[in-house]
Design brief:
- The strands form two sheets. Strands 1-2-6-3-7-10-8-9 form an eight-stranded mixed β-sheet, with helices on both faces. A two-stranded antiparallel ribbon has the order 4-5.
- Helix 2 packs across helix 4, helix 2 packs across helix 9 and helix 4 crosses helix 9.
- With 313 residues, the chain is an alpha/beta fold.
- The protein has a single domain, classed as Aminopeptidase, CATH 3.40.630.
- The structure holds zinc ion.
Length: 313
Amino acid sequence: MIRPLFLLLLLLATAACGRQEKKSDPPASPGQEMAAGITEAALLAHVNHMTAKELAGRKIGSPGEKAAAAYVEKHLKAAGFTPVGDAMIVPVLRPGLTGTLNVVGVKRGPSDRVVLVGAHLDHLGERDGKLHPGADDNASGVAALLEICRELSTLPLKKTLVCVAFGGEEAGLVGSRAFVRDATVDPAKIDRMVNLDMLGHPLFESMFGQSKPDGLGVIVNRIPEAELDGIIALAKAQGVEIMSLPEIWIQKLQPGFAYDSMPFNEKDVATLFFSSGLHADYHRPTDTVDRLAPRQLRNRAVAITKIVAHLAQ
Ligand SMILES: [Zn+2]
């Protein structure tokens, strides 16, 4: 995510405190057994690859960003995903500006209605001569994306599943804006967009005395209350405590806050943006793999697998 402010987390905390938990059983989901195949080791292997020196912080337009895209493409292809057009890697070219790319994989279901899961693969590259590896921002989200999509590829989903790794997020949502603008997948066909950005630290870690290691924030837009209750119950069954915040609060109070679900919101697509939020390592050279909480990352990925499986029925 880019340009967030500390107030956001205070808002999230306030919203979480204000939300009454409802006692409802989680909706039936076909992801119950399959998601058990997501392991901490597999997630950390993805993060280790994305944060390796050779990828040099995955800056927009860099060979490192391209290498990250090739890695995502390899894994989506191995899981049986196909391109939406000629190729899975879709170039994003802006006249006179740095180009980037999106990686787009599709698994078609009986219905052409789409559930889209996305995570940005770029980060900041080097600044002041120091590598910014971006382990949480957003190698953690890409790792979750790859494992979630691999698990979902084995399930008989009714809707069409689209998995996307966006490029150029840190430079101003370049990849996701192009995806929507060019209708790489027609926004009118997308029922739900699920954005994953920073999933690897305890929730509220940057707030003194308020850390919730097993918490997970979600910013929602156009998600009905009953559906959100079901999502919260599914996550809770996996040991993940969801704290929700309506998008409209962010748009009114934090207009500088930007993330990849926003271009979809602007086309009236309902969105869920999952994140464990800010911390002291955010956009610093210390955003490294050893600072991640593997158990939480794994539980969140399993919970989101079940949520997406439910949304795609
Ligand atoms: Zn990010």
